[in-house]
Amino acid sequence: MIRIFVVAAFIMMGGFAQADDFLIENVRIFDGVNSKLQAGHVLVRDGIIAEVSRSRLELPAGGTRIDGGNRVLSPGFIDLHAHLTGHIPADQHGQHATLYGAYAVDAARFFLNSGFTTVRDAGGTHPDLARAINSGSLAGPRVFPSGAIVSQTAGHGDWRSRNSAHPTLGGGSPYMPGDNAVLADGVDQTLVAVRENLKNGATQIKIMGGGGVMSEFDPIHSLQPSPAEIRAAVQAAGDWGTYVLAHAYTSKAVTRLVENGVRCIEHGLLIDDATAKLMADNDVAISTQLTIYRILGNMEGLSDTNREKAALVLEGQDRLIDLIKKYRIRTGFSTDFIMGQYPLLAKEFEYRSEYWTPAEVLAQATSQAAEIIRMSGKLNRYGNFGEIRAGWVADLLLINGEPLQDLSVLNDPDSALALIMQGGKIVKSAL
Ligand SMILES: [Zn+2]
Predict the structure, then answer these.
(1) How far is the CA of 74 from the centre of ligand 1 (A)?
(2) What is the pLDDT of residues 233-246, one digit of tens each?
(3) In angstroms, what is the span from residue 342 Cα to ligand 1's centroid?
(4) Most buried among 34, 40, 67, 348, by the most CB within 10 A?
(5) What is the pLDDT of residue 301?
(6) What is d(CA 418, CA 266) in angstroms, rounded to the nearest whole number?
(7) How much distance in Å is there from the Cα of 64 to the middle of ligand 1?
(8) Domains of the chain from N-terminus onward
(9) What is the pLDDT of residues 121-150, one digit of tens each?
(10) Mean pLDDT, to the nearest integer, of 375-397?
């Protein structure tokens, strides 16, 4: 009885309503791949890009005409490394999971209003929250959740204070506050942790693959986890047709991860030439971030240990970008904002422009990031996105100014974005 009522209420709220048809006319199209803009028109039907044409298209009956006014039309942006539930202020860490969720709702709205129609959550965000956003109940980018980050004891996901008892040696829960990480030691616990994430709805698995900045116990040079534990995570993810992404900085850590089947390395700031080549040879992607590392050392709530480690990894940034370019390692746009720093989202475009052309950065933020997310195979239930092509999901932005000449037009998303469309639904229109 209760169930029938809930379904009826959902229909009345428009939960099953079809997306409208739109004809977006008179735009210059950045398709996500080509650096040259193409003048044209785009027809959107039922949430999908139905047609892209240089000549005028007919407006379907009942459809809405949108005059693009010769603006640039881009695919929606994508962030490969978000932590929606990572924005609880430092002094509130350890509070109940609902509080992590409350801050996540604000962050999700900000991402979407900044033109980000999809994010891969690199750990922490529970798939239940992803489902609420992806169904349209809450505003936010389409979320590909990794669930709780799998970490060994004393690893980068072990966020206890130094004197606290081990959670499971006393028979308790292996989850860290907010369920943002789960401790797993040995092959068996790793299999359970990964499979539990998959059961909850994770679309890929995140593991801590080496020392990290924001944890207390693990030096940056520490290797985490063992080859057998990595293989266990890769096996369990692979059995679901998906892949493992791993946090790591050093050559030793990344080599071990690549040799045992990890498909995407997060950060990677301290790798050497040979390791970069190993990644390229194995078609392993890198998702690294510029802004967060440049501000991390000065953020509030860090211990002296954290600050030392932040300075250590930042030194590798220039060299890593050189290696990514030298070996053409697959990459995409990625931020890793935590503790409420996401209002700096546009900075990531700006800093990337120091190394890449605007067209290259925009390709990272659209087609290239999408290609990495699609490694989740059949767990991606949303079809193809990240490019403006017939048959692909209608995640679209109309941008004021000339982003292919200067990405600083994105510095103020409120004025830069004239239209935000996500899955064929208009999120914002300021035309
Ligand atoms: Zn992260």
Answers:
(1) 26
(2) 999 999 999 999 99
(3) 13
(4) 348
(5) 87
(6) 32
(7) 40
(8) 2-76+385-429 (2.30.40.10), 79-352 (3.20.20.140)
(9) 999 999 999 999 999 999 999 999 999 999
(10) 98
The token pair that represents 298 in the structure block: 């000065």
Ligand 1 centroid vs 133 CA: distance in angstroms? 20
Q: Using one digit for the tens of pLDDT, what is the confidence trace for 171-208?
A: 788 999 888 999 999 999 999 999 999 999 999 999 99
For residue 183, count other CB atoms closer than 10 A to its CB.
Answer: 24
3-state SS assignment for residue 143: strand
Nearest Cα to Cα of residue 288 among 338, 334, 353: 334
The rounded Å distance from CA 300 to ligand 1 centre is 17
Distance 294 CA to ligand 1 centre (A): 15
Q: Is the pLDDT of residue 322 over 60?
A: yes
Pairing of strands 285-287, 425-429: unpaired
Number of Cα atoms under 13 Å in the Cβ half of residue 40: 16
C-alpha 409 – ligand 1 centre gap (Å): 27
CA of 94 to the centre of ligand 1 (A): 18
| 216 CA to centre of ligand 1 in angstroms | 15
> Does the reported pTM lie above 0.90?
yes
247 C-alpha to ligand 1 centroid (Å): 7
Q: What's the 354 CA to ligand 1 centre distance in angstroms?
A: 23
Judge contact between 53 and 40, C-beta under 8 A. Answer: yes
Tell which residue, 284, 370, 271, has the closest CA to residue 321.
271
* Average of per-residue pLDDT values in the chain: 94
Q: What separation in Å is there between the alpha carbon of 289 and the centre of ligand 1? A: 10
Task: Calculate the alpha carbon distances from 244 to 205, 261, 267, 347, 370 in Å.
Answer: 5, 8, 14, 28, 16
User: pLDDT of 107-118, one tens digit each?
Assistant: 999 999 999 999
* Beta-sheet pairing, 285-287 with 264-270: parallel
- The amino acid present at 306, given as its one-letter code, is N
Alpha carbon of 210 to ligand 1 centroid (Å): 12
How far CA 126 is from CA of 29, 98, 121, 149, 388, in Å, comes to 35, 11, 9, 10, 30
Question: Cα torsion at 219, 220, 222, 224 (round to 10°)?
Answer: 120
What is the model's pLDDT at position 1? 39
Between strands 142-144 and 417-422, the pairing is: unpaired
